[in-house]
Amino acid sequence: MILVTGATGHVGRAVVCRLASLGHDVVAMVRDVQASSRRLLSGIVLRVADYQRHK
Ligand SMILES: NC(=O)c1ccc[n+]([C@@H]2O[C@H](COP(=O)([O-])OP(=O)(O)OC[C@H]3O[C@@H](n4cnc5c(N)ncnc54)[C@H](OP(=O)(O)O)[C@@H]3O)[C@@H](O)[C@H]2O)c1
User: Fold this and answer.
1) Distance between CA atoms of 55 and 44, rounded to whole angstroms?
2) pLDDT band at residue 37 under the 50/70/90 scheme
3) Ligand 1 mean position to 24 CA, how many Å?
4) Taking the complete model, does pTM exceed 0.85, yes or no?
5) Which pLDDT score, from 0 to 100, does residue 49 have?
6) Where are the domains of the chain?
7) For position 34, what pLDDT does the model report?
8) For ligand 1, atom 20: residue with the closest CA
């Protein structure tokens, strides 16, 4: 499994698409699930995290 950070950004989206097209098990780290679903391929597993928010 490969976790892609910045997955909704210019670089991250391309990386997610490429890894998924190669058959890798990709998980996208996102801040906003709703916004991410418009920007990423459907079927990509999402995990919510924000570098600015930690406990
Ligand atoms: N683009 C290039 O040509 C290029 C070239 C060399 C190096 N880089 C480097 O590669 C990295 C990504 O570039 P990019 O052009 O893809 O940037 P981008 O399009 O601005 O994307 C930034 C990504 O980081 C996420 N992000 C921002 N703040 C975050 C936080 N606090 N917690 C979690 N995620 C956060 C954004 O999520 P949201 O969607 O939620 O905002 C988005 O997915 C940068 O460090 C940049 O300096 C880029």
Assistant:
1) 27
2) confident
3) 21
4) yes
5) 95
6) 2-48
7) 92
8) 9
